[in-house]
Write a structure and sequence with these properties.
It comes from Desulfarculus baarsii (strain ATCC 33931 / DSM 2075 / LMG 7858 / VKM B-1802 / 2st14). By secondary structure, the chain is of the alpha/beta class. The protein is built from 7 helices and 9 strands, in the order H-E-H-E-H-E-H-E-H-E-H-E-E-E-E-H. The strands form 2 sheets. It has a 7-stranded mixed beta sheet, sandwiched between helices. A two-stranded antiparallel sheet has the order 7-8. Helix 5 packs parallel to helix 6.
Length: 231
């Protein structure tokens, strides 16, 4: 029987221990990486002056970005499942703010909670993965477009790649983890804003356009670093 991370005292203690050890260990390792950030002007113009915003990446990139942007304390949607409880504790260790829900089951409640978080003060950020929580890989969902449309806040796609990285081939997203001292390149796409009350057709068109841009961003960075992404 799987250990209950939510209702069992032992489970909660173990979840915190795993989160602290793994989270801090990864953070220390990532500090050895040589990070180059492209299009810094997008971040400076749209986010640094006190504005809030929404960040979107592919699922394969999530672990490194949680550490890299954890200091901005972004809200991240985490499922209500038992495994989600472990992820929520890991997220807190990395600096994020877990919001419980997902695009499958409780998704609308999760998006409303993220909207309340974003509207609660200046310089607040939401972050998520476009193809989460379970894929298909590189197929974007429309939840964060709806969140941007509802709040009026810009949505910025971003991605990273590395010249040396571990790839978890047994995961559906082929998770990437940069190796110590790897050269990491981060890039942003131009932040986008969406009108309120998008029609179903407009929402789908926006989703496909965003998906195409994010795939192009991923492919360009992989070409720059020499990373071979499996088909």
């Amino acid at each position: 029987m799987a250990l209950d991370y939510k209702n069992s005292r032992l489970g909660r203690m173990l979840a915190w221990l795993v989160a602290v050890v793994v989270g801090r260990g990864l953070a220390l390792m990532f500090r050895t990486c040589r990070v180059r950030q492209l299009h810094q002007e997008y971040w400076d113009t749209y986010y640094t002056p006190g504005q809030s915003g929404i960040l979107l990446t592919w699922h394969r990139a999530a672990i490194f970005f949680l550490a890299h942007f954890g200091g901005y304390h972004p809200a991240v949607m985490i499922s209500r499942s038992n495994d989600g409880e472990l992820l929520a504790r890991f997220l807190r260790v990395m600096g994020g703010v877990p919001v419980r829900g997902s695009s499958s089951g409780g998704g609308m409640a999760g998006l409303r909670a993220m909207a309340r978080f974003l509207e609660g003060g200046p310089r607040r950020y939401a972050a998520t993965v476009a193809d989460g929580p379970r894929g298909p890989r590189y197929v974007a969902k429309d939840g964060l477009i709806r969140l941007s449309s509802h709040t009026g806040l810009p949505l910025a796609p971003l991605m990273w790649s590395a010249d040396r990285a571990w790839r978890l081939n047994n995961t559906w997203d082929k998770t990437m983890i940069p190796k110590p001292f790897a050269k990491v390149i981060i890039d942003f796409g131009p932040p986008r804003s969406y009108l309120p009350n998008l029609s179903k057709d407009d929402l789908e068109a926006a989703r496909l356009d965003l998906q195409a841009e994010m795939i192009e961003l991923k492919d360009r960075l992989d070409a720059m670093t020499g990373y071979q992404d499996p088909a």
